[in-house]
């Protein structure tokens, strides 16, 4: 067993002391032998959290003719995957509990292992099979799974899932956040069958600093003993064999003359892995991402990140992304804007998005949902955050498109916060030594025309990321072209958010923020671009945000009505003036 798994076991312990926590997930679910459990699931809305007491999870028929149940799955369904808010008018604002039920007819085979895998469910989930609790999971954006081999019947099985999206003070995110709290089983559910000994996980990327050494490791499921592994990239004429140790683990490094992935050449290779009992394949790409002083280097060349921040929402449907078509809508909009980089704000987004982005040549920033008010004094926070990081990295660590793991967004320097985020930084580096680690800051010092980054966490990060709404939340202290960003940390700087609100079609003065006009938003963009051009340490920008998105915290009844209006696009995809300003900036910016 590699030391990563040991580390994870230790840190997860205290999170759910009494319950079985979902296991670390397998990588590459799509490459496994699985059947989809998507479709209509029967549901019960449990407004007052009475379901446990009524033992809904047993779903038993009444015991005799005078007995009865005060619940029934008979009459209502919801589609999985999908948030519940957009599926029923009465659930649009619902924050609470819904029980889901799916009947599975299984033909279990001797020696086969079965797992139920959830792409994501928001926020706390409890899973029962045939009346038995399989375990719990916390976190709305990361995958989880339970082994059901010993719980599954040949024939009929009842899978019952309790999903609770109530916000909690020690949650991640916590009680407040600037996006819609869509509830439900929001991503795909699959039943995966594996042999008794299967390939649980693997890491295959270019070795840090080398353009022709592929390095990584492979882990069979728990302690299956020594096995032969063959790893091949047929298109590159590469085949290597290894033998795992007694714990089913092997690390490897071998010479490989591969073409490197880049936005202009998003080359991916078919990779095939075989063990004595299992096999798996997927497309993997290879690239180098490095920092040298304040330079950001992709495959050894300076790169400028022309980014856009994206929420996982289809605004015109008022729903979460749930399909490949949804993901393509967002990515095609980002492409039309001229981006080479996407910030998946503020949580791990759908695996489809990460895979499609890589295929299309986008570099990606992925983040866990530590957003503003997370309680760093809670003793459980580190464990919860590590579980989210672990599951995000496990899922996407073989996606070369992903270049940055971000630990948090807009947290205030303080001893507990510094301690937790430092632990997370070193945890991420242990899991993945190849990628860059970031955290988006919004706390700066000001002096005349200078904006100063002195957050002590900078020491632990590979690059500096600043969310700064000059011209919107912060007035300009000097002409935009005279603003200087200063820091003693010689690291690449990204402006990871900037922008202003405007209602599409609202035209008028560019002079006042309170006009909410497209003209004012466009001017804010122009002014920020002026500031960018005179800041030499800048290696990328990421406007906030691709499209107007739903947020209950946006309460202006004339202009917002529950929408954050900082989109370059309206909720219907209409282009605001600011969209053209950013497109032109990206098309004339020299560094690709
Ligand atoms: C921020 C946050 C983002 C908000 C945005 C805003 O700094 O990171 O989540 O949505 O500002 O619109 O205020």
Automatic annotation (TrEMBL):
Question: Where would I find the Glycosyl hydrolases family 2 sugar binding domain in this sequence?
Answer: 88-195
Where does the Glycoside hydrolase family 2 catalytic domain start and stop, copy by copy?
289-561
MF terms (GO), sorted A to Z: beta-glucuronidase activity; carbohydrate binding
Give a yes or no for keyword Hydrolase in this entry.
Answer: yes
Q: Which family does it belong to?
A: Belongs to the glycosyl hydrolase 2 family.
Q: Which UniProt keywords apply?
A: Glycosidase, Hydrolase
Q: What's the protein name? A: Beta-glucuronidase
**GO process terms (BP):** carbohydrate metabolic process; glucuronoside catabolic process
Q: Which residues form a coiled coil?
A: none
Supply the Pfam families for this chain.
Answer: Glyco_hydro_2_C, Glyco_hydro_2_N
